[in-house]
Amino acid sequence: MRGALGKRTVLRAGYAVVVGVLVVSAVEAYRIQTSASRRHLEIYRQYVDQDQLLSNLRLNIWLAGNYIRDFFIAATPERANALRSQIAGLRQENETYLQKLARTTNEQDEIPKLRQSLEEFWNVAATVPAMLHAPEEQQYDFVQREIVPRRGELYAALRAITATDQQRLENIEGEFANSRREATSRLLVMLVAGVLLCLVVVRLSLRYAENLEQQAEKHYAAVEQAKGELQQLSARLLEIEEEGKRRLSRELHDEIGQTLALLQIEISRAQTVSGSHSDGLYDSLARARELAERTVQTIRNMALLLRPALLDDLGLVPALQFLLEDFLRRSHIATEFVDDGVADQFPDTVKTCVFRVLQEALHNCEKHSGATRVRVAVRQFPDLLFLDVDDNGRGFALNPHGMPLKTSGLGLLGIRERAANCGGTLTVDSAPGRGTRIALRVPLAVMSPSPPAAREVAV
């Protein structure tokens, strides 16, 4: 018992560890997925924001160059004022973009240089409206000398920052992929460990289950053997009981019955001899004779209850008919007996079983059923002998095993045991309010003589 408890404890611990590993693996997988998704989203958003800011800076520089070109194409005081306003607005927007870029980018060394270049570009662009009346050659020379180179430098600086950000993004994605691979490797190691541990637990569980199954088979075999031995013992006890009843019945009928019969004869002779001499003696002898007759009848009834001589002398069917006649005399319940092809060539155990089953069924009917009619049918087939006992009494409820739901007697259990000892079956069919039917089925060996015709006897 302690060993079994120890094995169960180990198996429970193994199951707990397996479940724990699986839970930890699931949590780790969820954490890896969540962390990876969040990190990837952060990297993507940072890159998109930086790229958008750099695009806005390039756009403003490109717009500033277009505004200056348009101004030189048709220079007027109104265009000069508009250009000042446009340059001021673009300059303010670029400052806002630079501040945002300084907060998001990691290239902090490039921001001051870019800011200085932008300041120089905007300062130069701010002097353009003052060249309202300058000659076209001077305007063209100014654009080529001051605006175009500075704008090219700004484009180059912005492209450099963009390239640096792209390179940094690739590096971060590589680091992210490496960390994800490491996390995946850890998760795989945990899963492999969980699977191996699960296999160990399964192996132990199967071995434990096999041991339990073997023990259960051994116990079942032992129970079956004990059941068989008990059945053999029960059958042997029934044989001994029937043999004892037979001997006792013979002794009562032959020895005591004959002795009492002789006593009756002697009393009759004494009555004849003393009849004319003394009336008192004659009356005493008459009473003694009556007492002897009653004793003889009592002895015969006892012998009949123990073992009917008809069963051994005349066979099964006459014994059953006598049993029904005696039942009718005692209970006054109408009976019907049907004999269908019964040859009476049966082993003693079969005849005794059928007789005792009918005896118990009639006893229960007389004592409990309140029936007014009983029908008994005995039918023989080549391999089976049927006995059906039906009454129209009050009936009773049955349990799942086909036995009375509430009973304190062992009569039905005893005749069921008798049927099992003969290799047969006994079924009870009843319900409150619809009577009772007891059916006995006993297997037979194929009999050579042809059975007699069916006959029906109303008792």
Task: Offer a quick outline of the entry.
The chain is of the alpha+beta class and 459 residues long.
CATH architecture of the largest domain: Up-down Bundle
Low-confidence stretches: 446-459
Judged by helices, strands and strand pairing, the structural class is alpha+beta
The strand line-up of the biggest sheet is 4-5-3-2-1-6
Give the integer mean of the pLDDT values. 76
Per CATH, the class of the largest domain reads Mainly Alpha
* Basic shape: rod-shaped
**CATH fold field value of the largest domain:** Four Helix Bundle (Hemerythrin (Met), subunit A)
Topology (SSEs and partners):
Elements: H1 2-73, H2 77-104, H3 110-126, H4 136-274, H5 279-306, H6 309-313, H7 316-331, E1 334-340, H8 348-369, E2 373-380, E3 384-391, H9 411-421, E4 425-430, E5 436-443, E6 455-458
Parallel strand pairs: 1-2
Antiparallel strand pairs: 1-6, 2-3, 3-5, 4-5
